[in-house]
Amino acid sequence: MGTRVQDKVVVVTGAAQGIGRAFAHRLAGEGARVVVADLNGEKAAAVAAEIGPSALAVVVDVSKDESVDALGSVVGDTYGRVDGIINNAAIFSTIQMKPFWELTTAEWDVVQTVNLRGPFLIVKALLPLLKASSAASIVNIGSDAVWEGRGGYLHYTASKAGVQGMTFGMSHELGEFDIRVNTISPAATQTEVPRATVSPAQLEAMIAARALHRVATPEDLTSLAVFLLSEESVFITGQTISVNGGKLHR
């Protein structure tokens, strides 16, 4: 594919399936050493095996300090630095759509814990390793659901709005260390993972509303991720970039 991130150490959370798996494969194809980090150790190991010796599978629960700290220890002992992070792990495909007034506190909390606390804990734990890099870059995965204001999963939308706010704040606090932070904001993207959040009729309506009338795939996101993790984007930080096929114009 190329060598735009040759020998960079990149941690991808939620990398065992879906968009995260696509990120891991694309980065490896561009020369990166990829840490396939996921709660599902068996699937993470399978993805690492698909990639080959440039990948390392690590089990992590992004919502728990001790698990994230353990990830940092493994990556530090193995590579000594982190050049990039893709904060992709999130709860979405299993969400049952419902009005917000029907959400339980437990449903709200678990989504916030994984989707919002997770990226915070990952960056915090890996910060010493990011500082050891000459030009580190963090890519947070947001969602265009924030801009659409769609109903049915307010807890998810709120969590992804928080991710964008985190990007803005982190970019300023980490700029002095030459660490860049940006958000990729996808529209609904079709993967191999079954999902309860979009019905066939809703997906058809989404496609019709796009300037580019087709389903979005994980591969539509991977080139942008490589760009943001590479030296080609050294003066881009604090930005949210939508990948939505022209559904929204901002």
Would you give an account of this structure?
Keywords: Oxidoreductase. The chain is α/β, with parallel strands linked by helices and 250 residues long. The chain has a single domain (9-243), classed as NAD(P)-binding Rossmann-like Domain (Rossmann fold, 3-Layer(aba) Sandwich), CATH 3.40.50.720. The chain is built from 8 helices and 7 strands. A 7-stranded parallel β-sheet has the order 3-2-1-4-5-6-7, with helices on both faces. The mean pLDDT is 92.
TL;DR of this structure?
By secondary structure, the protein is α/β, with parallel strands linked by helices.
Strand count, sense and barrel status of the largest sheet are: 7 strands, parallel
Number of helices: 8
Contiguous uncertain segments of 5+ residues? none
Taken together, the total number of domains comes to 1
Mean pLDDT, rounded to whole units? 92
* Class by alpha and beta content: alpha/beta
Give the fraction of residues assigned to helices. Answer: 40-55%
CATH superfamily descriptor? NAD(P)-binding Rossmann-like Domain
The Cα radius of gyration reads: 17 Å
State the separation between the terminal residues, measured CA to CA.
31 Å
What's the total count of β strands?
7
Strand order of the largest sheet: 3-2-1-4-5-6-7
Percentage beta strand: 5-15%
Q: What spatial form do the alpha-carbon principal axes imply?
A: globular
Provide the CATH topology.
Answer: Rossmann fold
Name the CATH class: Alpha Beta
Corresponding CATH architecture: 3-Layer(aba) Sandwich
The helix/strand series, from N terminus to C terminus, equals EHEHEHEHEHHEHHE
